[in-house]
């Protein structure tokens, strides 16, 4: 698929409609408290709003709770994916269904306080900025190892990628319609949303927001998932891991030539020593390991290519509730590919 460029358009009627996107999986225990704070916070904005929830393959009562709540909250809209596709895809699915002038993306566990939405969209309302990130204050980054891993990832990403991502920001954002349209025009399957928003550009700023503790349940992000996301992010936005092996190969070759010259000179001057089999075995294993690491990195990039050329849809929607128009009408100008398994329910 070829994504056509998205033209930036001037602000048009800032403040008319706010769309909130809530990706969630197995969050039923905390939804009462979430909506008890979210709805009043949106009412206080004094503008029309919609809440687009994306059930990302929950195995608890999350979907049933949302359906029951919609009976008393018409602004609530529900997208139920056919399985768990991951948070990055769930956010994409929600943004593809929004109709607002500004879209707010936030977590469903109340670590992103709903009361901060007003401060988050204030720079956008002024017309000065198109994309506003929440700069995380008092964020619990976990234990020492997780914090060290986080620092290492951001340093590696900044060094290896073509875009920069601020470590102090997260997924709590407010984005203008043209920013979201640009985001949806990027159809790649291996998605790192923060990198995609950063790559799109536009006028960006940050707002300090104090993070809170998760109200219920446990985080879906274990170390393996975080590691997978980190590798995916780095390999999606830079080719330095591939290029660096040219330098490693050159350094190894030069070292081998120098060592070979040393052996020749030593043999001519002092004669040949008895072969050292342990040192030979260590050298073979070392260079074999170097080669396997290089092949692994190449394989990671080839895996990305393989995933893209299959051209599978990003996700499948099992059920969509509360939407007035078919998705195809709203996504006609987007390169996003989506398939419906069921029909929309108004």
UniProtKB/TrEMBL annotation:
GO molecular function, one term: glycosyltransferase activity
Transmembrane as UniProt keyword: yes
Protein name: Glycosyltransferase
Matches recorded under Gene3D superfamilies: Spore Coat Polysaccharide Biosynthesis Protein SpsA, Chain A
CDD domains for the chain: DPM1_like_bac
GO cellular component: plasma membrane
Annotated TM spans: 244-265, 277-302
Keywords, sorted A to Z: Cell membrane, Glycosyltransferase, Lipopolysaccharide biosynthesis, Membrane, Transferase, Transmembrane, Transmembrane helix
Domain of life: Bacteria
InterPro entries: Glyco_trans_2-like, Glycosyltransferase_2, Nucleotide-diphossugar_trans
Organism of provenance: Siculibacillus lacustris
PANTHER family named among the record's database cross-references: UNDECAPRENYL-PHOSPHATE 4-DEOXY-4-FORMAMIDO-L-ARABINOSE TRANSFERASE, UNDECAPRENYL-PHOSPHATE 4-DEOXY-4-FORMAMIDO-L-ARABINOSE TRANSFERASE-RELATED
One Gene Ontology term from the biological process aspect of the record: lipopolysaccharide biosynthetic process
Pfam families (UniProt xref): Glycos_transf_2
Coiled coil: none
Keyword Amino-acid biosynthesis part of the UniProt annotation: no
UniProt domain Glycosyltransferase 2-like: residue ranges: 19-180
């Amino acid at each position: 698929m070829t994504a056509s460029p998205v033209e930036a358009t001037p602000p048009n009627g800032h403040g008319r409609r706010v769309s909130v996107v809530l990706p969630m999986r197995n969050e039923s225990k905390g939804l009462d408290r979430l909506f008890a704070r979210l709805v009043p916070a949106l009412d206080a904005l004094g503008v029309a709003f919609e809440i687009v929830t994306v059930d990302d393959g929950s195995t608890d009562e999350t979907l049933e709770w949302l359906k029951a709540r919609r009976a008393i909250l018409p602004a609530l809209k529900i997208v139920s994916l056919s399985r768990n596709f991951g948070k990055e895809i769930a956010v994409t699915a929600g943004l593809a269904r929004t109709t607002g002038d500004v879209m707010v993306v936030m977590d469903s566990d109340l670590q992103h306080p709903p009361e901060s939405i007003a401060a988050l969209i204030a720079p956008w309302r002024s017309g000065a900025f198109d994309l506003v990130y929440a700069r995380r204050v008092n964020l619990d980054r976990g234990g020492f190892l997780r914090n060290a891993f986080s620092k290492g990832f951001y340093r590696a990403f900044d060094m290896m990628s073509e875009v920069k991502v601020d470590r102090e920001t997260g997924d709590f954002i407010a984005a203008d319609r043209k920013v979201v349209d640009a985001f949806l025009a990027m159809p790649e399957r291996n998605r790192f949303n923060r990198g995609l928003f950063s790559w799109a550009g536009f006028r960006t700023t940050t707002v300090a927001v104090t993070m809170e503790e998760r109200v219920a349940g446990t985080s879906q992000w274990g170390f393996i998932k975080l590691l997978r996301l980190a590798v995916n992010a780095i390999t999606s936005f830079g080719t330095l891991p591939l290029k660096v092996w040219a330098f490693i190969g050159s350094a190894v070759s030069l070292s081998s030539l120098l060592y070979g010259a040393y052996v020749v000179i030593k043999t001519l001057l002092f004669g040949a020593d008895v072969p050292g089999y342990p040192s030979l075995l260590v050298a073979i294993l070392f260079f074999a390991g170097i080669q396997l690491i290089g092949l692994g990195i190449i394989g990671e990039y080839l895996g990305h290519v393989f995933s893209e050329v299959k051209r599978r849809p990003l996700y499948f929607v099992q059920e969509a509730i509360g939407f007035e128009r078919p998705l195809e009408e709203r996504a006609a100008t987007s390169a996003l590919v989506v398939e419906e398994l069921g029909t929309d329910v108004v």
